[in-house]
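Researcher: I'd like a candidate sequence for this fold, 267 residues long. If you have to choose between options at a position, lean toward the conservative one.
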């Protein structure tokens, strides 16, 4: 079943993923929830259930004109759409990141921008959503209309990689091509179990093994995705366990910084 509820944010500068979220909602006839936020209201100070601080104090002094203008622009943009939608403008005195993540628990997909801006601490927001909502996140590069025809699945045998693939199942069925991509696999059989699982869901997937050749794993995946015209890369959101499990792994963070590909992240 494709996503039925999609959540995203909108900002006055437009450095958000609103257009990507609109594209997805139209594709799947999903309800789109949009939270309007203004400058730096998405800074993260702490994660729920953790004493570890992620960033500085939350700034909540937001000009009301910015939010009113933003709401009017979003309403105008959504007014002609055929899918249902709603807009939320939260109280400036609350922790916006945690509120957004809490609301996103009831969504099937969160759509966020891939690049940071003055208004969004994107790493912190992704971490908060994954930690609190545990909902798949689609990160969209600026100016890119997300596509779902050619999809690569980053596979390293980990629990988070498998969780991401399971989260992607609702959209894999309509893809024209699905590839399970392994970087320096430990065995020739790497990825075959995933291919069998997908086949039983009606998804035909090939397995591709790539040499690392002294490169970063993120560089290998990015280069392969660009050179082969992939629309989407599905990957687990965390690279390790332990005290810093709630933080983005190194491969995930590097992909967000440089990929140029739409990413589907899950844990």
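Model: Candidate sequence:
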């Amino acid at each position: 079943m494709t996503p039925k509820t999609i959540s995203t944010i909108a900002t006055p500068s437009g450095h958000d993923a609103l257009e990507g979220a609109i594209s997805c909602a139209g594709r799947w006839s999903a309800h789109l929830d949009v939270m309007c936020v203004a400058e730096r209201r998405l800074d993260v100070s702490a994660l729920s259930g953790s004493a570890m601080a992620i960033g500085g104090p939350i700034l909540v002094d937001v000009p009301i004109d910015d939010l009113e203008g933003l709401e009017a622009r979003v309403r105008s943009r959504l007014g002609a759409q055929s899918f249902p939608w709603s807009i939320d403008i939260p109280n400036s005195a609350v922790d916006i990141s945690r509120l957004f993540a809490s609301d996103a628990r009831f969504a099937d997909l969160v759509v966020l921008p891939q690049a940071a801006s003055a208004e969004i601490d994107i790493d912190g927001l992704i971490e908060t959503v994954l930690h609190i909502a545990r909902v798949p996140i689609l990160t969209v590069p600026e100016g890119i209309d997300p596509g779902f025809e050619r999809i690569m699945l980053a596979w390293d045998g980990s629990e988070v990689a498998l969780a991401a693939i399971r989260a992607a199942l609702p959209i894999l069925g309509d893809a024209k091509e699905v590839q399970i991509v392994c970087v320096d696999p430990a065995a020739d059989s790497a990825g075959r179990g995933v291919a069998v699982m997908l086949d039983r869901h009606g998804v035909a997937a090939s397995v591709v093994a790539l040499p690392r050749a002294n490169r970063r794993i993120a560089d290998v995946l990015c280069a392969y995705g660009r050179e082969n015209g992939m629309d989407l890369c599905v990957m687990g959101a965390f690279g390790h366990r332990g005290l810093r499990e709630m933080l983005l792994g190194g491969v995930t963070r590097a992909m967000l910084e440089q990929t140029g590909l739409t990413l589907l992240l899950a844990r």
